[in-house]
Amino acid sequence: MxxxxxxxxxxxxxxxxxxxxxxxxFVVIAYTSGYRLSVLYRGRKSDxxxxxxxxxIDSLSVQEIFLGELRGLADRPLKSLHATLDWMLLDTxxxxxxxxxxxxxxxxxxxxxxLLGTVIGMIETFASLSNxxxxxxxxxxxxxxxxxxxxxxFGLVVAIPGIxxxxxxxxxxxxxxxxxxxxxxxxxxxRTGQI
Length: 195
Fold this sequence. Notes:
mainly alpha
């Protein structure tokens, strides 16, 4: 384990200054993905109709919180109910959509930062080639190429799992939102006597 940690620290230093923003992007992706997973997966239910027909709520999934708020509107007049439901939908959508933009942006930044490190490394390589001292230029060439490859690798290592997580979370978010819309429709049908 210690060898792996030493290797990671060594790679971090080889990447140069670009490693710092890449590490920040990695932390942002990890935090936003963890937050969104905890919100979207907490007590998830698969069958909305069964959830709607149950009398009590046993966990705090997004769908059940929304359903609890719906049941609190049971005695409201039907005229004011539609506007209230639309506000509730907007509020719930904002909760499940939180950090989506930040996650997508961080996932896009990671490979671009890796590319920036590649460009910086190649500039250093060519700068060392322009030096007439062969001994110093071979070390400069190796260092520049190393920085170019390490930052590209670091950018891809951050971006690839981030892309997977962002797409997975978007799919879960869409399913959760569709469940909430279905709960709203079931509630309105129950109120108007269609169920």
